[in-house]
What does this fold into?
Amino acid sequence: MSDSPTTTTPQARFYEKRDDGKIRCRLCPHNCVIADGKVGFCQVRKNEAGELVLPFYGAASALGVDPIEKKPLFHFHPGTPILSVGFLGCFLRCPFCQNYRISQSTVAHTERVSPDDLVSRAQREDSFGIAYTYNEPSIHAEYVLDSAERAADAGLKNVLVTAGYLNEDSAKEIYAAMDAANIDLKGFQEDFYRKELAGGLKEVLRGIEIAYERCHVEVTTLVIPGKNDSDEETREIAKFIAGLDPNIPLHMSAYYPTFNYTTEATSPSHLLSRIEIAREHLNFVYPGNIRAPANTHCPSCGNLLIERSGYRTRVPGVRDGHCSECGAEVPVAGL
It folds into this structure.
């Protein structure tokens, strides 16, 4: 483990040079103009003598095996363990971030892990793939893409857990390298994204569309009282997702005070009422961060397809990818 990056600084992609020696990063919509010796908004992409370099390439802040349901992904190889790796930094400034110690700082302890080492570890752990998660992994796009290529060559799946705030070109390349993604949709108000998160809603919505065209997608919304929890906003979120595919799973999670937010926690009853609204438009809406059933039922006949107890999973109602009762196709990968 180390407190700071090594002197190895691989060169980045997704940027352009300027005549004044500054660099414009093109990875995310911040499009940072970075002076020599400085870093971008994400804190991990640096201008070094006119080149954009990656001082935190392969610096893992967290590394371990999780159930795939913890990402959360409920419709992608249910009940399967996946090696999960996190890094440092973020392209947003969410005041309620649960992982702020690694997303809003670059001083946390890290362990250098090469893409080849990451794949080897996944194989040793009997993981079916690699999940890039915990902080905002896409700001380490070069490392993620390098690792994803090696993982795919080894027959492993690649999963991205992201807030989805990317420029179109980088989003297309990153999601094309993934087998699945869980994307945070933190609300449906542009002002909320701009003023509180330092991001933008329209870019995230476009990112979800791009991801849906390229890999399996699930969406997560953290329900925060007084911020993004109105009936109207819940319906807008659900309608947007349903416009792509009503079978896309939506995970609606309860908020708890953390980091810079002291807003009261989301009550279970309020969260469940938001879920019922979302189910007006979507076939699969699941609660998170509360004790409540998160089972999967057949939209056609109501048969119990997948039963979940914590992170333990049982699949009683699926036969050869179809509902055991009515024969409808089950939109769950890996069954």
